[in-house]
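Now for one record.
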Amino acid sequence: MKTVSYFFSVLFFSLLILNGCKKDPLIPLVTTSEVSDITLTSAMTGGNVTEDGGEAVTERGICWGTTENPTTSGNATINGTGTGSFESNLEGLVPGTTYYVRAYAINSVGTAYGEQVAFNTTPVTVPILATSAVTEITLTTAKSGGNISSDGGGAVTARGICWGTTVNPTTSGNVTLNGTGTGSFVSNLEGLTPGTIYFIRSYATNSAGTAYGNQLTFTTAPIIIPTVTTTAVTGMTINAAVSGGNVTSNGGGEVTARGVVWSASVNPTTDNSSTSNGTGSGAFVSNLAGLTPATTYYVRAYATNSAGTAYGNELTFTTLVILVPTVTTASITNVTPSTAVSGGNVTNNGGANVTARGIVWSIATNPSITDHVITNGSGMGSFISNISGLTEGTTYYVRAYATNSAGTGYGTQLTFKTTMTPLTDSDGNVYQVVKIGNQVWMAENLRTTKYNEDDGTLPIPNVTDPADWGALTTPAYVWYNNNITNKDTYGAIYNWYTVATGNLCPTGWHEPTEAEYGTLEASLGMSAAEIALFNSRGTDQGTQLKATTTWTGGNGTNSSGFKALAGGYLQWASGTFAGLGVNTYFWTATDDSPNGNTTVAYYRRLDASESGVYRATTEKRGGKYVRCVKD
């Protein structure tokens, strides 16, 4: 027991001794590391707790601020506990700012701070950027842009292109605004002046200011003269034509005038004759007027802008020649012994105003304005001419005429013969007459039933039985087929004994002799040798004498005006009527008694199938028609 007690006694006293010798605890000892990895908003530092001061270090780190001797009451990091070295990342710093930093360590005694270290954060700088090449250059626009490779530490709040006509353009001049931030961007430059040198730089703005990219230069496309083509020339007249053009490009400038120019010399310009056909691009039509007839012209379209006047391809054309007018002659109508009606139609003025028109006539062929003239106004179109002062029974030639500055044009020549004053016989029958050559003939067959003697009341015997005619040696007449309806068309059929009285034709007229029929035939072109022949003679004299109607399959033209109808005849031997529509016979006043043939007389016959005139003698008892000739 004594030993145990002794042990406890020694222990007790030892503890007392130990407790009496122990020191009081202190704040830790800590050092501040150098600041490194400094950026705009961060830095790297730390510390080293070399002694805990006798008490455990419960917190350690870095405190910092913009004033000296920062404490944990401000910005601080917590970087674990205990002694030893540690690192601290400082974040959220302000660029370009001076900061003060101290390491700290905390134990139960208090907080200890390392030595103060000062540093500056990196400042914000202007961005770094490059200007993009200029492309798509036009008269008034271009395209460029830039690429911001660094924002300089501050947000890029504006970017784009600035440009001007002097070097080093800035944002105080012309600019584009192309968003924010870094990277590439595209800028469209507009409102430029054609043909102008421009200087261009990209720009980018942050809090540090505005930075500019490399300067480039370019020239906008210049305004050039327009492009224009000439339209084909059409509608040529003696003094006008139609052309025009098409402005396919304005050359970059407003087309203020356009039209065509022309001259009788090559390469006409606006100093020559020209039209004005509005402004702008596109097609236009030009009417050329005041040209000279029969002249070759050169024509070009033109278009004018601020760069000058351009001309289209040169074309050539020739105006029409003024010709004499074209006129037709109207048919001859209403022919009387002294008047007639004709006229004409001017169908083409030849390219110039018709100053006079009408008809000309003469008794000679191809009348002209030096002969008889009737003027019927001017201009184109149809007109009517009344001819007067003519001589009865006369052949006239007539042509329409029209006059312009080139001369006088004539229509087709027409011919007509004035009629004769109608003839009246003892019965009151009225006959048309015609002048052929120098003779005046009835144009109808005689149809009187009375002799022309004394008081004109002595009748001619009307023998109605044709069978009796074979025995007659005295005058007699009859209507064809004894039908009085044939009177007005064909006239009366007489035997030669009636003709021989010399009193058959009206006063001043007589029955034609053989020789007088020969004169008629000569007037129509039959030769003297042919006239003396018997049977069918001549060429077309029969055709000229025949009317155009009543002939079956006939070829009458009535060009003589004699108007012989196919009235047939009375055959004395058989006592029958024959030949209607096929032929006709005319007595002459001449018999064949000089040759000892006292029972026969001369006649003329026309046949539907023959063109000539048949001459022969026949029994005086036969029935034939009679034409009278004027004394």
In short: Confidence is low (pLDDT under 50) at residues 1-21. The first strand starts at residue 29 and ends at 32.
